[in-house]
């Protein structure tokens, strides 16, 4: 792997920057220690006792997603593809977040499940539950490794330590507060980290635009460089999807990214759902993803634009370097698109502000990895260990298991960090993982929720078939049998996984027996009484500004306007 410190590209941090970082780390660990005092049961550790207000869980919801891959990965996408990257937010996130809040959360929260795999257990039985539990746990370790690799890359650039040392040290910092305070420590740190991330990236965006002559200067430079003016408009996004045909590109974005990948991620990914399940009421749980959608609309402006600026203003990513990377070849400078944000910080920020920016990056990496660890330990402890290996033990036993599992997951993430290091753009890696794990799960989940006839056998057979299909598409694209540059392979894989899962599930349902209707109440839309899906409108849930439907409508209008403008 390329280590930029070897190429004399170290960040020029001084004593002030290091002091700011030290203060930040002490604060983070202190929050973990204070949260530990509130942990007395496994429910406290894994779901914060279902006691948090909507504004806390809403900010944590978006911060958990605003990890290393989101910040540096989307900046890398900005440097490589430009404005089409906004589709990951306005098409590939917000609509699904609104659907989660309005439609899905009443089922999750109302059934009092502790995880998404537990919902699968009640709907489809043990086989589907075990398949989903194992696949989810695997995905979280792989994604945590990607977050950890980028966190270690910053430490490597900052201190010049060998990458493996940086990986281990970075992992220990996250482990310290996650193992201490469980989900509460992760959530309260995520709220802090959201503020720090914005405080770091907003000044960088403003200074970056000033450097290139404002928005018009950026437009002129991007138009004249590799990639050309196509990088200035989000539609049709051909470079991002890999399709030359505009219709196919739009279809890939709307169906592959906007429907399958997006809904598969936001509505069934327990990393996100876990934050909403920690809310204190049904109304707060519904509002959690909707509150998170407001900042999600604006995040593209502080992660994509700096990436675009880096692509035209940073020497190591300009001209022949960018052209080589766009062609899939190593850049003569040794840099990759993953380095875009770091190199821009190096070039533009003075000491002091550099310390804040570095803290913001580290905050994003820790938020992402802590979210992966806290969801992994919940699913492994409840859905695998308690259900299949050690049943009916005292509650404090599962609390101890959760802490041990957090340590084990951290060690595994150190190993998977080196898999992530082989990708020049980690968003390529992330989208592949989503096509494997999230797309087929969404197909099984949504079919089972709205079709009462779907059988337990169809649940697990469809899930396995969809995953196998996505893996097959990945193998075909990697081997060159099917040429799909950019992230088109992931979009096609996700779409294929979804379709195959649905077809197989329908076929298996036709020849197997369904569950009795009385066992599906609260799990299938048509069999669940409307009153059990209703939120409270009194007390802390009263007021028009706490109406999930109204808030979702406002977000949807803003989303449509942004898609029209850009």
Automatic annotation (TrEMBL):
It comes from Actinophytocola xinjiangensis. CDD domains: SLC5sbd_u2. One of its GO terms (cellular component) is plasma membrane. Pfam families: SSF (PF00474). The chain crosses the membrane at residues 18-35, 55-76, 88-109, 130-155, 161-180, 192-210, 247-268, 289-314, 353-380, 401-423, 429-450, 457-477, 489-511, 544-565. It is a multi-pass membrane protein. InterPro entries: Na/Glc_symporter_sf, Na/solute_symporter, Na/solute_symporter_CS. The lineage of its organism: Bacteria, Bacillati, Actinomycetota, Actinomycetes, Pseudonocardiales. Gene3D superfamilies: Sodium/glucose cotransporter (1.20.1730.10). Belongs to the sodium:solute symporter (SSF) (TC 2.A.21) family. It is found in: Membrane. Keywords: Membrane, Transmembrane, Transmembrane helix. Coiled coil: none annotated. One of its GO terms (molecular function) is D-glucose:sodium symporter activity. This is Na+/galactose cotransporter. The keyword Transmembrane applies.
């Amino acid at each position: 792997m390329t280590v930029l410190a070897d190429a004399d590209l170290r960040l020029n941090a001084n004593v002030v920057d290091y002091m700011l970082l030290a203060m930040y780390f002490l604060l983070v660990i202190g929050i973990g220690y204070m949260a530990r005092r509130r942990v007395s049961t496994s429910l406290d550790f894994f779901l914060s006792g279902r006691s948090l207000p909507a504004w806390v869980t809403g900010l944590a919801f978006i911060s958990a997603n605003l990890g290393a891959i989101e910040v540096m990965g989307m900046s890398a996408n900005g440097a490589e593809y430009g404005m089409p990257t906004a589709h990951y937010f306005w098409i590939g996130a917000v609509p699904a977040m609104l659907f989660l809040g309005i439609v899905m959360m009443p089922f999750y929260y109302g059934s009092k499940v502790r995880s998404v795999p537990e919902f699968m257990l009640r709907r489809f039985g043990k086989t589907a539950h075990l398949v989903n539990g194992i696949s989810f746990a695997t995905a979280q370790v792989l994604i945590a490794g990607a977050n950890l690799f980028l966190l270690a890359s910053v430490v490597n650039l900052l201190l010049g330590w060998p990458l493996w040392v940086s990986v281990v040290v970075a992992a220990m910092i996250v482990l310290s507060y996650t193992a201490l305070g469980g989900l509460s420590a992760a959530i309260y740190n995520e709220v802090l980290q959201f503020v720090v991330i914005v405080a770091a990236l907003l000044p960088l965006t403003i200074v970056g635009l000033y450097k290139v002559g404002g928005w018009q200067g950026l437009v002129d430079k991007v138009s004249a460089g590799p990639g050309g003016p196509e990088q200035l408009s989000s539609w049709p996004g051909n470079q991002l999807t890999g399709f030359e045909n505009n219709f196919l590109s739009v279809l890939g974005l709307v169906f592959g990214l906007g429907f399958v990948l997006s809904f598969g991620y936001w509505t069934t990914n327990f990393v996100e759902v876990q934050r909403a399940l920690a809310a204190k009421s049904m109304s707060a749980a519904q509002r959690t993803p909707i509150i998170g959608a407001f900042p999600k609309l604006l995040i593209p402006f502080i992660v994509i634009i700096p990436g675009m600026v880096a692509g035209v203003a940073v020497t190591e990513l300009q001209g022949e370097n960018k052209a080589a990377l766009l062609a899939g070849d190593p850049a003569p400078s040794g840099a990759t698109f993953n380095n875009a944000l770091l190199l821009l910080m190096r070039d533009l920020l003075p000491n002091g502000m550099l310390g804040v920016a570095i803290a913001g990056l580290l905050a994003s990496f820790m938020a992402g990895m802590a979210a992966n660890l806290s969801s992994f330990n919940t699913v492994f402890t409840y859905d695998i260990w308690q259900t299949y290996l050690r049943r009916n033990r005292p509650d404090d036993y599962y609390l101890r298991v959760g802490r041990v599992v957090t340590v084990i997951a951290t060690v595994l993430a150190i190993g998977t960090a080196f898999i992530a290091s082989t990708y020049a753009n980690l968003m390529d890696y992330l989208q592949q993982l989503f096509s494997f794990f999230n797309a087929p799960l969404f197909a099984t989940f949504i079919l089972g929720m709205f079709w009462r006839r779907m059988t337990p056998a169809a649940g697990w057979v469809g899930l396995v078939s969809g995953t196998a299909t996505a893996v097959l598409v990945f193998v075909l694209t990697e081997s060159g049998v099917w040429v799909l540059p950019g992230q088109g392979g992931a979009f096609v894989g996700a779409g294929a996984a979804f379709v195959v899962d649905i077809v197989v599930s329908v076929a298996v349902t036709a020849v197997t027996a369904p569950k009795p209707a009385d066992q599906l109440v609260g799990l299938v839309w048509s069999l669940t009484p409307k009153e059990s899906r209703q939120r409270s409108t009194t007390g802390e849930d009263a007021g028009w500004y706490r109406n999930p439907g109204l808030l979702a409508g406002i977000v949807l209008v803003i989303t449509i306007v942004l898609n029209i403008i850009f």
